[in-house]
């Protein structure tokens, strides 16, 4: 994963628009505003590759990025609250679920969890969906710079508890801060 080998491929608004399934993919899922796009930028070392913003609902398409010749990084729209009209939100939520259930080449989903909030009901629902489609997923704690160590440990315990109920969950949790660069090399090596 080097800046020079990563580029935007396309934004997809329907399953029919997905690129040919000719290589493996990893995707980044999570509630709106959890830091998916920012994490992709941190991973690739390219500040403005994926568009991030403070407004929940920034990413509204399934965005494909190449990572070398071998695989795709996929930035997903968020789930949960979004600052956009309801019919629009419902449309992209449907697409998100179809993608998570039906993409053959999806090798792993990273489910991002805000270090301040832990696993919420919507996260749990997405995890169940991944269980049922047998997509292995791994939890990534984001914005770790926003909490003190003690609080982080508490949230980590809560996340561990939630993961233990999901057969498709990979047990190891990666703690990150895109802001500080924490956990980025670890996540890069996992990918
Ligand atoms: P949607 O596309 O709306 O679903 O959001 P997203 O999950 O892609 O979140 P995005 O990357 O746009 O980031 C949301 C906000 O969180 C932005 O203002 C980021 O700057 C901020 N943010 C993301 N990661 C971190 C982090 O590690 N630390 C801190 N302090 N802020 C972060
Ligand atoms: Mg985004």
UniProtKB/TrEMBL annotation:
Gene3D superfamilies per the UniProt record, alphabetical: P-loop containing nucleotide triphosphate hydrolases
GO molecular function: GTP binding; metal ion binding
Pfam families: MMR_HSR1
Keyword hit for Cell cycle: yes
GO cellular component: cytosol
Top-rank taxon: Bacteria
Cofactor: Mg(2+)
UniProt keyword Transmembrane helix present: no
Domain spans labelled EngB-type G: 22-191
SUPFAM superfamilies: P-loop containing nucleoside triphosphate hydrolases
GO biological process: division septum assembly
Its job: Necessary for normal cell division and for the maintenance of normal septation.
Family: Belongs to the TRAFAC class TrmE-Era-EngA-EngB-Septin-like GTPase superfamily. EngB GTPase family.
NCBIfam families: GTPase_YsxC (TIGR03598)
HAMAP family reported for this sequence: GTPase_EngB (MF_00321)
Protein's name according to its UniProt entry: Probable GTP-binding protein EngB
The organism of origin for this protein: Sulfitobacter donghicola DSW-25 = KCTC 12864 = JCM 14565
Gene name tied to this protein: engB
